[in-house]
Amino acid sequence: MTIDHVALLPAYAAAGTAVLAFLVEVALPGRRAAVLGATMLGTVATGVAAVWVHRGGGERVAFCVEPAGCSYQWDGRAALIGILFATATLVVAALSVSVLRSGAVPAGEYCFLLACSLTGGVVLGASRDLITLIIALETLTLPLFVLVGLRRRQTASAEAAVTFFVVSVVSTAVTLLGAALLYGATGTVHLDGLAAALSDRTGLVSVPLVGAAVVLVLVGLAFKVAAVPFHAWAPATYDGAPLPVAAYLSTASKLGGVVALLLVGVVGLGPWLDVSGPAFAVIAVLTMTVGNLVALRQRRMVRLLAWSSVAQAGYILAPLGAFATASGRGDIDLAVSAVLAYTVFYILLELGAFGAVIALRGAGDGGALDDYRGTARSHPWLTGAFVLAMAGLAGLPPGLAGLFAKVAVVRALLGGAAGWLAIVVALNAVVGLAYYVRAALALFAREEPVAVASARTAEARPPRGSARAPVATRAPVAARVRVPLAVGAALAVVTIAAIVVGLAPQLVLDAVRL
Amino acid sequence: MTGPEILLLVTLATPVLGAVAAAGLPVEDDRAGRILGTVVAGVTFLVSASLVLDRPSGRGMWSEVDLPWVPGLDLRFHIGVDGLSYPLVVLTTLLTFLCALYTCWHVPSSGGRPRGRQLVALLLVIEVGIVGVFLALDLVLFFVFFEVVLLPMYAVIAVWGGEARRAAARKFVLYTLFGSVLLLVGVFTVVASAGTADIVALSAGQGAAMPYGTQLFAFVLLALAFAVKSPLWPFHTWLPDAHTEAPTVGSVILAGVLLKMGTYGLIRVAVGAAPAGAEAVAPILGILAVAAIIVGGLVCLAQTELKRLIAYSSVGHMGFVLLGIATLTGAGLQAAVIGNIAHGVITGLLFFLAGAIKDRAHTGDLANLGGLREVAPGLAGVLGFAAIASLGLPGLAGFWGEAFAVFAAFQRGGALWITLGVIAAAGAALAAAYFLRLLRRVTHGAASPAVSTVEPRWLTGAELVSWAPLVVLALVLGLVPALVVDPAAGPVAGLVDRVVAP
Fold it and tell me: Can you tell me whether residue B79 is helix, strand or coil?
């Protein structure tokens, strides 16, 4: 077996980043900026490597065995996924400046774990057998348990970490059981081999057994994207985690789940799309509907974003629901491209939303919606970025990126003769707008003393208009926070990127078709 | 790129730049921002009006721009103007200009620091969306422009509106988004089946070539989408709240041109792309339209609030426009075209008046108004003119749309359509009844306490300048309806041929 080390370069770069972060922390203890800088440099290198390896097109493979095939393949889509992971990690690292500065989180461990997770993501996009894929996915997820619980002396943080850990372990066990059954039934773990072995149903040992295996694998992976009914961990975990980690969970981690579902569900289990297609359709409908309806009731910013990201997972998976019908299975690439396109748009917008929240809240938690009153006046630019992200997630101009994301999904669904699912997506967008508008509007509410203020302080309350005095009023935390340069720069870059792909969505559509 | 093409692009680009410039000014320059926005709106009006200079003699588009934008989503930047869209484009740019002009003097309160420049900027963005809808010749582009209007209008109502503005704004945005997501599905149903998003090609026969079932499905989706926007009874419930709470300029734009996106879309997109579907659904559309006329009229008779009454009268008037479309005859579509323009002019004027009266008397309650003629004869006179124009007096703009719509229903023949025509005619009488009731309540009788203290008693300069063009238009269109009807004749004939031919 020959190993093409060039193909592995992005993975090496990502793993090297983790080691580098660790070494810098050891060499320069207490120098948070140095650790973070090294991590960001390594992440950039990973992204560059991801593109460089794919330069000139074609694909490079590694870990090949005859006749099963290769376990690792760096092609256009792997490069795209690698870039996405590197971008998300880079932005999250920049957004972490506030949290790291506050000292609530140890910088060395934080950066090391983030880079470890990045490594898992980069390998995941290139993995072409079930074992590599599951290990990559676990490498992506495992550091996150620690990252979620990393805030010192925070019970919510620890609780969130335990919930996340338990759910994740169970889901991995389920996936592994399914993978084992598939191996038992076909004798291969390579995705191409699986597809070949599964295409002839009469030759299988037991059709019900394979059916059960397909369902188990996909259910386990559905946990990772927080699809209903495997979503309950997400809101509690997001809310308990440090804000940048929540941003990572809702973007990079979700991307990992989507990539795994696509690789396994569409590539490996491609011949069984008639079984998994209806399941995708049902999961997508449930996910978007439940996510949107529950988000309507949320009063806390991060929980609202968490439920909205559940709903967004539903939109992401919706094009796969077109596989439920034979005509929908006619153009598989159309649906897969729509999934990836939506994911790219979504990641940019979600990073924008979390970036604005982090810029406004600093090292604190997301807070309640009421805590954002008066922000529009004190931070007009941050408010603009947040409104743009919210409009995009709702799928309306001026968030053109989100509009085109929805258009891509609906177009794929109608191209695949799944008109009913397109209507469900469309109606869900209406429900979604109700809470996106509410979240955005919270920033425009006038600063007013809140009833929570105690009676004693209420008497000493300054008259309206001068209510920004930091006394009795639960004045917006935002009014007191200075936005670190790195956070502002990251938010600006993400927002500009969202505007650019909103005006030129063809850039994304071309990238996902590679 | 030729001159006419540049004019088309400038029509869309100018307001965008103006909006950015006006909104970007600091708070000290609020007035400068409003004036800048007004100048931009004026330039846009002149540019859009000059589109007529390139009018050729044939049936087709006067001028077109067709550029690739997002091939992956079948989206081309394909815009053009013809006799069907030109009057609406000019009406939009005119009303936006007048509203911006009005805002130079009257900034509705938003609490806190002055935000007039942002209001003007939002009006310009809304203008881009509406003009874009009228100009779009690509289905997906049409949808994109349709969506552009939503959030800015939401902001106008939610920031500068009356007391219950939040709820009204939310209702507006959710209802109309419901409509536009159905539009999205309808658009891609057509695109997936016909293989093109080009509205010209679809109207020229590619739409009619779609299977009957697809046409029916697409038309139902598109008609629902446009029915919410127009609004057609029973999807109208967002409209009275939005109108009542919106600031004066918001109401004017909303009633004047935003609703026309629905009726224009029905003619250009729904009937154009799915004629067989239109033929099948037409009776239902006709029945709903007549129901809207009657329900709107009856509700108006019982209304006690000025702005709400005018809002409900819109439901009735748009019912006539929709009835005209539902007949699918040349006369009916012509009626819809002239009815659209007339309603935009007259109801725009009525909302300006309602705003002026509410600003002066601090109440819109009909019971507390009265005797305006005694105190403010100028205001009462214009109100009387607008109300009479709106109830459809021959010789004024409102007459043609309603008369033609009823005529078209009779022309179409058959028991159903003749019944509908008779009921619609009765509905026109209802309109006369409630407008005369309105005039009796507001202008006649002894001056009520609220009215007797109104200040200023005469029309202000801002009001004179921004209302005069509308008064003149209501008169001119009433005397010479051919101004609108003639240019639209070609495109309408093209659409009617498609409906009848297969």
Answer: strand
Say if residues B128 and B16 touch (Cβ distance below 8 Å).
yes
Is the previous residue joined to A476 through a cis bond, with omega within 30 degrees of 0? no
Residue A173 binned pLDDT confidence (cut-offs 50, 70, 90): very high
CA distance B56 to B63: 9
Backbone torsions φ then ψ of A73, nearest 5 degrees: -140, 120
Tell whether omega for the bond before A449 is within 30 degrees of 0, i.e. cis: no
Q: How many CB atoms lie within 10 A of CB B131?
A: 27
Q: For A321, how many CA atoms within 13 A lie in the half-sphere containing its CB?
A: 26
In contact, B296 and B233? CB cutoff 8 Å: yes
Range list of H helices, A296-418? 301-317, 332-361, 375-378, 380-394, 400-415
Distances (CA, A) of A391 to A161, A360, A395, A438: 31, 18, 6, 11
The structure tokens listed for A369 are 């919606």
Nearest to B73 among A408, A433, A434 (CB): A408
- Domain positions in chain B are 3-500
SS3 A160: helix
Residue B409 CA, distance from chain mean position: 23
Residue B95, Cβ neighbours under 10 Å: how many?
A: 30
CB A313 within 8 A of CB A254: yes
**Is the CB of residue B428 less than 8 Å from the CB of residue B323?**
no
Quote the tokens at residue B414.
Answer: 């058959």
Q: Does A496 touch chain B (CB under 8 A)?
A: no
* Dihedral of the alpha carbons of B216, B217, B221, B224, in degrees to the nearest 10: 50
In angstroms, the CA B343 to CA B401 distance is 9
Whole-number CA gyration radius for chain A: 23
| Contact partners, residue A251, CB within 8 Å, separation at least 6 | A88, A92, A346, A347, A350, A351, A354
CA distance to A57, A74, A178, A311, B314, per residue, from A70 (Å): 18, 11, 21, 35, 68
Compare all CA atoms of chain A with the CA of B166 and give the residue at the minimum distance. Answer: A441
3-state helix, strand, coil in chain B (%, to 5): 80, 5, 20
Q: Are A453 and A473 in contact (CB under 8 A)?
A: yes
Of B205-214, B328-337, B380-389, the one with minimum mean pLDDT is B205-214
Residue A182 and residue A210 in contact, taking contact as beta carbons nearer than 8 Å: yes
Task: Calculate how close chain B gets to A397, using CA atoms only, in Å.
Answer: 5
Alpha carbon distances (Å) from A453 to A372, A460, A474: 16, 11, 7
Is there a contact between B70 and A509 if contact means CB atoms under 8 Å apart? yes
Secondary structure (H, E, C), A253-266: HHHHHHHHHHHHHH
Distance of CA B450 to the CA centre of its chain: 32
Q: Does A37 touch chain B (CB under 8 A)?
A: no
Quick check: helix, strand or coil at residue A304?
A: helix
- Please tell me the distance from the alpha carbon of residue B352 to that of residue B365, in angstroms, as a whole number: 16
Three-state secondary structure call for residue A219: helix
Q: What is the pLDDT of residues A5-56, one digit of tens each?
A: 888 999 999 999 999 999 999 998 878 889 999 999 999 999 999 999 988 7
- Locate A237 and state its tokens: 């975990």
Q: Which residues of A touch B16 (CB under 8 A)?
A: none
Q: Does A396 contact chain B (CB < 8 Å)? A: yes
Give the whole-angstrom CA distance, residue B8 versus residue A392: 28
Q: What is the pLDDT of residues A295-314, one digit of tens each?
A: 999 999 999 999 999 999 99
Burial class (CB in 10 A: 0-12, 13-18, 19+), B348: buried
Which structure tokens are listed for B330?
């040349």
What is the predicted ipTM? 0.89
- CA–CA–CA angle A397, A398, A400 (5° rounding): 65
Q: Alpha-carbon distance B269 to B199, whole Å? A: 7
Mapped onto helix, strand or coil, the DSSP state of residue A290 is helix
